[in-house]
Specification:
- It comes from Litoribrevibacter albus.
- One of its GO terms (molecular function) is arginine N-succinyltransferase activity.
- The protein has 346 residues and is an alpha+beta fold.
- It has two domains: 234 residues, 3-Layer(aba) Sandwich (Aminopeptidase), CATH 3.40.630.30; 76 residues, Barwin-like endoglucanases (Beta Barrel), CATH 2.40.40.20.
- 27% of the residues lie in helices and 28% in strands.
- The chain contains ten helices and 16 strands.
- Helix 1 crosses helix 2.
- The protein is globular and about 80 Å long.
- It starts with a strand and ends in a 10-residue tail after the last strand.
Length: 346
């Protein structure tokens, strides 16, 4: 498997992935025309043909036949063309000494605090491709791309994680809060905002703080809770240094995790080495998994290898791996897939 920028030819695969995603992943609505527009914007972003604050970088996980079996994305800068909303989970204290009553109530405040941040989004791997560490590869490749082109992204990075909804697509958080103002089902609002119609949030969302004690227990339990299928993705992001800072998604209550880009593990640990071809049988096998990527923008490539040897400023790799990476001047960026294996680079 290898990660590459999305191309127009991937529309069928992206549409199939969007259908498989189901409700709650609004960055990939099952709308073929809209997805085609997303691909076009991504292609233009890699070519630097659109303003940087509008750039959207989408990558696919491709097999040996170049079929797209997974997708992930980075939005360069959020909230400039349309406001980006989250709830900040805070506390509201009420006290009266005369009658000796003190209450500390968790409260949701509507904010635009992520404006200007870069966003990690749209991570999805086809069920047939979820083995062999393909999910971690697809998720973490974005950090290496950001490192290569640091000037294209903001100081902070965040990800809005998919919140809890049941098998029928119902979100208790939405049903108890948002639905009362929008008068539509969660699936519908998820679809509309996924297609970019976020102006309805400003028009219909309540502007005043929401006391969470006024919500049902099932709705309160959704605040900061991820969908079960999203838990592995959340754990991966935490391992890289993103943290929950008391922000949640306004529709399903899913957690928002964030960090300063320059503090992230992969940004700090990755290094550039010179790639040298060597016969695979003459290299150590079953080494700790290593992320490899080239330094190209339009022709970005990233893959995993277990078959390598590092000596000084060189890394010995099988010739087919070097060929797949489309290296420029034999320079390859490397980083351990997992933080626990960081010493392989020392």
């Amino acid at each position: 498997m290898i990660v590459r920028p999305i191309a127009h030819k991937d529309i069928d695969a992206l549409y199939d992935l969007a259908i498989a995603a189901g409700v709650g992943m609004n960055s990939l609505p099952a709308d073929r025309d809209f997805l085609a527009q997303k691909i076009d914007r991504a292609v233009q972003s890699f070519q630097q043909k659109i303003p940087q604050h509008q750039a959207s970088y989408i990558f696919v996980l491709a097999d040996d036949q170049d079929r797209a079996l997974g997708v992930c994305g980075i939005e360069a800068s959020i909230g400039w063309d349309e406001p980006w909303y989250t709830y900040r989970v805070s506390q509201m204290v009420h006290a009266c000494r005369d009658i000796d009553i003190y209450t500390n109530t968790p409260t949701l405040f509507l904010t635009n605090d992520q404006i200007g941040y870069s966003e990690l989004c749209s991570l999805l791997v086809h069920p047939d491709a979820r083995a062999n560490k393909n999910g971690p590869l697809l998720s973490r490749c974005r950090f290496l791309f950001i490192r290569q082109f640091r000037e294209l992204f903001g100081q902070k990075l965040f990800a809005e994680m998919r919140g809890f909804n049941d098998e029928q697509g119902h979100s208790p958080f939405w049903d108890d809060l948002g639905k009362k103002f929008f008068n539509m089902e969660f699936e519908r609002i998820d679809f509309l905002t996924g297609r970019g119609q976020r102006s309805i949030i400003a028009e219909l969302m309540p502007k005043y703080p929401v006391y969470s004690h006024l919500l049902s227990e099932s709705a309160r339990n959704c605040i900061g809770k991820v969908h079960p299928n999203t838990q592995p993705a959340l754990e991966m992001l935490k391992q890289e240094g993103l943290r929950y800072e008391n922000y949640v998604a306004i529709f399903d209550g899913g957690p928002v995790v964030e960090a300063y880009v320059d503090d992230l593990r992969l940004i700090k640990q990755a290094k550039n080495l010179t790639a040298v071809a060597k016969e695979a049988e003459n290299l150590p096998s079953e080494q700790p998994p290593l992320l490899l990527c080239n330094q190209a923008r339009e022709n970005f490539r990233c893959k995993l290898t277990f078959n390598y040897q590092i000596e000084d400023n060189q890394i010995h790799l099988p010739s087919d791996v070097i060929e797949q990476l489309k290296l420029e001047q034999q320079t390859v960026t490397v980083a351990s897939l997992y933080a626990k294996d960081a010493d392989v680079l020392t």
